[in-house]
Amino acid sequence: MIGQSISHYEILQKLGEGGMGVVYKAQDTKLDRLVALKFLPPHISASSEDKARFVQEAKAAAALNHVNICTIYSIEEVGGEVFIAMEYVNGKTLREKIRSGINDHNAAIDYAVQIAAALQEAHSKNIVHRDIKSDNILVNSKNQIKVMDFGLAKLRGGLALTKAGAAVGTIVYMSPEQIQGLEVDHRSDLWSFGVVLYEMLTGQPPFAGEHEPAIMYEILNVDPNAIRTMDHDVPEHLQVLVSRLLQKSPDKRISSAAEIIQLLQKPLAAVPLAKSQKSIAVLYFENMSSEKESEYFCAGMTEDILTDLSKIKELQVVSRTDVLPFRNKEVNIGQVGEMLGVNYVLEGSVRKAGTKMRITAQLIDVRTGFHLWAERFDRLVEDIFDVQTEVSKKIAEALIAELE
User: Fold this and answer.
1) Is 322 among the residues known to form the active site?
2) Which of 162, 249, 280, 377 places its Cα 20 to 30 Å from the Cα of 314?
3) What is the percent of the chain with per-residue pLDDT over 90, rounded to a whole number?
């Protein structure tokens, strides 16, 4: 099509293509401006369902008027070709920026605030994007974000174009509920935003695999590697923010783009999650010994306790990735409680001497700072895994009794 004219547009070059469209740079000869034209691909142009989705994209995006959202000018059909005329953005995709390296945390925060602002605008109009990814986010020559491609957007109450149980989106960025083909809302976009933010901070996606089923399994069952293991300099509030966004359950995620913006712009006034009456964070146990092996024991002990506590229906337990930023640090329990949105914190330590091991654990009420329960376990290190299992179960039993 390059060099051809369609309606009053002269096609100049191909910019890219995806599952729902091919995009060209064009000259609008009527208004004398550059535009981007997105055409429905020929191989699916015969499908009335795909045409309807394409039109819905235009209607969804055209309803939005925001500096960080790519502006839609019109939707047209000429000679059987259906296309959208939209703002031409001279710049790079966020994916290209990430590949070249976003080494400045302030730059990542700036991009994140702009993306969140675009989502806030869309969500305020009851529009869920459903395909937020770094390829769908452009950065222009002025470092301004433009979120585009609402091809998978779904207006609440609008035409249902996705078959029941069908997952729509791009696997790496899809939320657990999307993968399972469940009904999604704005919190699914916030998950995808979390994936993008993780990419900006680490240069890689939080979930990876050799094939789609492997990636889907990780999204549903595995916590991503903690950001601090790849970059120790990432601010703590960003690590916690990503952890909150990548909660498997939508109910445990940050609830709005507005909260994200507030946390990004005012980290010292972090927005806590709504506190449940029975919510707890298990901090990594402190290694009081000089032996490196004790570090593994402490980590295993902590994760065993998390597993046992997570089986209690009435108790909300913060994930492992949420507490990782606080590992091996002097912490203020009140601040931890506010950052993680919990009412209780469990902390402990391990001291090993020869074949003897002493494990201590304390349950603290965040609101008062008082110890509700504390216990000391003295054991012989005959089978380290049996010790972990025994102690974690006793701690879980004690906590259940204390929190009833």
Assistant:
1) no
2) 377
3) 31
